[in-house]
Amino acid sequence: MVTASDSDPHNSIYYIYLPQVRRLEKKMQVYATTHRGLERVTAEEIRELGGKLQKYGNGRVYFKCDERLISSLNYHMRTCERIIVLLKSVKVTGLEDIYKEIKDIDFSFIKPNESFAVRSKRVGVHDFNSMDIARVAGDAIIESYQSSAKKRLKVNLDSPDNIIRVELIHDLLLVGVDTTGDKGLHRRGYRVYQHPAPLNPTIAAALIRISDWRPEKILVDPMCGSGTILVEAALVGSDIPPGRVREGGELPFNPKLKILGVEKFGKHVKGCRETLSKLGIDFIKVIQGDAEHLDQHVKEADTIVTNPPYGIRIGRKSKIKKLYHNFLKTAKDILTENGSITLLTPHEKILKSTATKLDYEWSETPIVYGNLPVKIFKLTI
Q1: Which CATH class is domain 201-380?
Q2: Fold (topology level) of 4-178
Q3: For residue range 216-227, what is the model confidence (pLDDT) as tens digits?
């Protein structure tokens, strides 16, 4: 188990919001935000790091922990976006309810000379928008603090000392202190090449986790694009927390890792190599090649993890069917015994039809990625 003692994230510029959290209770109700469908994956990661799990759903994992573990989670977590200390969870019917419930919260953990900002989110059908929620919530916080501390809190939308997250998920109101800051944990900071459809690093990390890849095994991404899966695998295999990447400086990668990338388009190969070079990763080979002829480029693989291009990028469904069939067919020729393929796709029917014809077995995890319903499949021979 990794704990806060494995690093010293308290000195990192990315956790400037933790001093406010330290004024709250020692054992706090906390939740992490993640992509809908990945709650179980994120929950398992939180449990391994020491969080006391309670429940999960709707893209959120609820747990209890102390302030020091919150710091460690912000530093180590790979599959979530934010870590938020929960101040209130309650059902509401409209803006008046939101104002009343937030006004009843004790915000005395905010010092009189500190500023705050509300960051709001709304999911569902309502007759108001997220800006209305932020306005009402801000007024309620100011009024609450004025009543208890006899002082008006300062609002600073750009660089607040405290970020109060107010989320309305259908009729469920969640109010909390954001310990992560405005830059979510998916912002690793290592990209130097802007791929037209980059994969979110938290999704890439989840794919690797679902694949059950182990560092001593050969991992191949046959459609590697800008290299997000390759980098995340290198971080996992070298036991490097994402927080260490965000801090900058030299990273102690494990040069014995066997990770390979294949990419069809030369400009993406070049961009991927630039990102790897920036990070000091010289043991990952990236070659230009076609996933439909994978056996011509790769001798063997224990684990294949990839994000095939969606239809909007490659055109007709017939091309997608051809890609999936040829890729999965040639992948069988290089997979070692007990090898597997883990991939993300919105083309469930095509994938299942192709996998059935080629005698693959599979498990599936439905998720929502950028408001698009997709599935993570893990295929085995």
Answers
A1: alpha beta
A2: VC0802-like (3.30.2130)
A3: 999 999 999 999
